[in-house]
Fold this sequence. Notes:
The protein has 162 residues and is mostly helical. The protein has five helices and no strands. It has helices spanning 7-33, 37-52, 59-83, 95-118, 124-155. Helix 2 (37-52) runs antiparallel to helix 5 (124-155).
Amino acid sequence: MSTPVDAEQAWNDLQRIRVPQERVYDEIERSASGGPGAAYATAAVMWVFLAGQGLDLSMWGVVSSLVVYVALLVAVAVIWGRRSRMRLHHSRCNRRMSATFVMGAVMTGGTTLLAGRLVDSLEPMTAALIQATVSTAVFLLFAGPARRWMADSARLGGRAGR
């Protein structure tokens, strides 16, 4: 019933399976900790949008600027998504990814609202510039470590954050 197993051949077979999987994890980590271009582009779009809100626009101006803002964010996501060499057939959104998204939204949105409240007494354009700068800085400070923490969950293989 038992067949002889060559230990060296078994080890080589195991390495042949493990190496491509490790390369996938390495690529995920590289793309997550790699160039911060998408974060900078997103921050620039956010800064221009928030600074533009200090122009005292009419309702249609606010709505049209919001539409342009969302369209630019989608464009940044599409452009940077196409640049990624990583193409996983099945991608799963685990708890770490969801938590990263929610924490980022809470931190950036909360900072925007808090900064808006704190600079209410200033003239609108100055207040908008301060609010945009503070909110963008918080976004950039959060984005780097959050991406690395989120990508780390892929290497752990579902043992963490699920």
